[in-house]
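Q: Sequence in, structure out?
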Amino acid sequence: MKIFQYLKSKLGVLISQPFILCCIMALTMCLAGQKKVDNMWDFQNYHYYNAFALFNDTSNFLVPGGINTFFNPILDIPLYLYIQFFNNYPTLIYALQGIWGGLLFCAIFKITLLFFNRYSVKAISYALLTICISLCGRITFTQIGSSTNEVAVAAMDLWGIYFILKMIKYQRLQTWYKWILCGVFLGIALGLKQNSITVCIAVGLTLICMYPYIKGTFKHIALFALGGVCGYILINGWFMYQYWQQYGNPLFPFLNGIFKSPYLDQINYNDKTCLPELSFKTFKYYLWKSTQPKGNCENFFRDDFRTNIYNTFALVTLVWALLKSRIRHIYKQYPLHVAVFLLYNFTYFIWFFAFSVLRYMVFIEAIAAIMFVQIFQIQAVKNRFLCFVFGAMCCVLCYWRLSYLHIRPYRQVDSYFTMERLNLPDNTLVKIYGSQSSFIIPELAKNNTKFKSVTYYNNHWNGVGSDCAERGKFRLQRDKIESGHKGPVVYFIHDEQYTHRIQSLVGKRDFFINNLGIDSLEPNMFSCRNLRYNGVQHFLICTPNEYRDIIYGI
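A: Exactly. Output:
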């Protein structure tokens, strides 16, 4: 304490919370700007288009992003605006996207401070250590500054968790409107991205388990749930109304087994691509997962080894507490530790059986880091050697993770996103074959206003075939557009999905008939070449020979 008072007297504002939080934010933005790593799959598939659709009339464009076309676009707005104004300054755009990561780490910092009775050098050190361990998580590190929005949603969840834990620690602070506010935070996160449902359920279960620390238990938990509903409606209500008016399902494309919209199959949509097979191995992987990948899916089988350590460490700690009959003692003496422990395991378990998508683990990695450091802190007081070893391990992990900064980024370019300028004749029908393609629409719309597009999607959907462009009334709408079209047609073809040997097969009519269902794409009528843009996928553009010079601006 004397050290802290001395430092505070000498450094003054430099050791204050606001200054440290600003430094965390600035350093995270610098890291994102330096790293320049993005998951272009989602950006090309729907993030870019969804924000564009919010500001423009999209009635002539038939579900170019498939199911993802209907996801909440609010988090995509900042990046869309950055591209409009700062496209030639990609480092700045990545840094601005890093603001979400700064908010995430600021929330982790504030949560960690709750585990200490006073603001001190020790508290600051543990808080910064927790941030470093969270940053070392593969999922968090690779999404700092990216367009996936997982970090932004996790940040919103963690700020809600911070206020909840603060009220558990200081019960005198509990008031009805604060519980509503906490619910609003989590409700907004759920409205922004539906996979946040894992956190909402986990928090509800944790609050039930921590009921002795909640004044007026039933009342305040009910108010928390009410706040969640209000937050969800606040951020998603307008879209729910639009979907109800247009598709007959306010949660479209979800829960269609209940609302039965004619545009999709009458089943409750859920992405089961990455779910594990339920067997004895499932529970073994929950503790210590295999590194063997399951096909090409980004699932838990390809998880980072640190999460394995967190799981095993958490289970060993629980078993130790049970065998020592210390549950009641720990529950009373360390309520915040118990709350974080429960929250981590509830969240991980629900994620494990509901999604198992690796990209969704930002929140889990953050809570795991908090749990791991705080359980260690209890033990480190008794064993200084353990403290030294743990600190050395953390330094090695941070160096190992940050050493990736010298590796060439996925997209080392002069602009964030560019596509060649195409001049479409009026009344052109754009046919898009394959996924990760909705970015084509906003790029074409920059200098073309009178065109329509239809999508031939090939994503495997819910175990029943192609994505929504091929289903229900969407298919009928597409057929109607095509049958009534009399003008020129331009094809965009995702060659990795459709034509791995495309260069040697361009112009062979039988190939296109069998693989694409295109019976008019013949060499004397169309010419094909690679689409020029700086994304990570490969597209062909096939244009009518009579309009070729006009379209390419030759």
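The longest strand covers residues 428-433.
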